[in-house]
UniProtKB/TrEMBL annotation:
<dbReference type="GO" id="GO:0033744">
    <property type="term" value="F:L-methionine:thioredoxin-disulfide S-oxidoreductase activity"/>
</dbReference>
<dbReference type="GO" id="GO:0008113">
    <property type="term" value="F:peptide-methionine (S)-S-oxide reductase activity"/>
</dbReference>
<protein>
    <recommendedName>
        <fullName>Peptide methionine sulfoxide reductase MsrA</fullName>
        <ecNumber>1.8.4.11</ecNumber>
    </recommendedName>
</protein>
<dbReference type="InterPro" id="IPR050162">
    <property type="entry name" value="MsrA_MetSO_reductase"/>
</dbReference>
<dbReference type="InterPro" id="IPR002569">
    <property type="entry name" value="Met_Sox_Rdtase_MsrA_dom"/>
</dbReference>
<dbReference type="GO" id="GO:0005737">
    <property type="term" value="C:cytoplasm"/>
</dbReference>
<keyword id="KW-0560">Oxidoreductase</keyword>
<dbReference type="GO" id="GO:0034599">
    <property type="term" value="P:cellular response to oxidative stress"/>
</dbReference>
<feature type="active site">
    <location>
        <position position="53"/>
    </location>
</feature>
<comment type="similarity">
    <text>Belongs to the MsrA Met sulfoxide reductase family.</text>
</comment>
<dbReference type="InterPro" id="IPR036509">
    <property type="entry name" value="Met_Sox_Rdtase_MsrA_sf"/>
</dbReference>
<dbReference type="Pfam" id="PF01625">
    <property type="entry name" value="PMSR"/>
</dbReference>
<feature type="domain" description="Peptide methionine sulphoxide reductase MsrA">
    <location>
        <begin position="48"/>
        <end position="204"/>
    </location>
</feature>
<comment type="function">
    <text>Has an important function as a repair enzyme for proteins that have been inactivated by oxidation. Catalyzes the reversible oxidation-reduction of methionine sulfoxide in proteins to methionine.</text>
</comment>
Length: 222
């Protein structure tokens, strides 16, 4: 019964109440040295994705590199109802959130389409309320768009990627494309969890659907 509840979206009226105080997070990115929270540099843009366990997803995006236009990354909770949830609350399935990664980027150096390519190829977007062995609504695939241009790009790439998945034997894409909701930063120990300073022995497994996956899904047990 508990597993069934975790793979069923909670009704807003049944969601946990949460709290007013936001989660305190480190001022600086463990690897890039840039601010995790706003304000971000003028001209930067935000992309947000849910792709399963956020530890490895975040590492994949920061490894694209500052030289290619990645300004900062952070992990958090989005797409749900409970304000400022804790990790344990999100894992209960009673907040409606997915584990999300925020990518702040310089659009003059890297395009949103490049990030979408990393998104689609970096995980299996056909699994519904799970990603591999991780089961629950917090692992569902999601693109949170910050503009109509982002929405159009997300929808067009989803349409283009489905035939490729079908030819490879995958099912229908279950990714949600939704307007950006409040992004609640995860606890400090989750931020850059797989950095050398925190967990140097974290391993990188194959999380994508293609032979060449631009970001590996690295994890231990998140």
């Amino acid at each position: 019964m508990f597993g069934f509840m975790k793979t069923t979206m909670v009704d807003p009226s049944d969601a946990l109440p949460g709290r007013e105080a936001p989660m305190p997070v480190p001022e600086r990115h463990e690897v890039l040295g840039t601010p995790l929270a706003p304000p971000y540099p003028d001209g930067s843009e935000i992309a947000e994705f849910g792709m399963g366990c956020f530890w490895g997803v975040e590492r994949g995006f920061w490894q694209i590199g500052a030289e290619r236009g990645i300004i900062t990354t952070a992990v958090g909770y989005a797409g749900g109802y409970t304000p400022n949830p804790t990790y344990e609350e999100v894992c209960s399935g009673r907040t409606g959130h997915t584990e999300a990664v925020r990518v702040v980027f310089d659009p003059r150096r890297i395009g949103y389409l490049d990030l979408l390519k990393a998104f689609w190829e970096g995980h299996d977007p056909t699994q519904g309320m799970r990603q591999g062995n991780d089961v629950g609504s917090q692992y569902r695939s999601m693109i949170l768009v910050h503009s109509e241009a982002q929405r159009a790009a997300a929808e067009s790439t989803r349409q283009a990627f489905q035939p490729e998945l079908t030819r490879s034997g995958y099912g229908e894409i279950s990714t949600e494309i939704v307007p950006a909701t409040p992004f609640y930063f995860a606890e400090g120990y989750h931020q850059q969890y797989l950095s050398d300073a925190k967990n140097p022995n974290g391993y990188c497994g194959v999380g994508g659907t293609g032979a060449s996956c631009p970001i590996g899904v690295a994890r231990t047990d998140g």
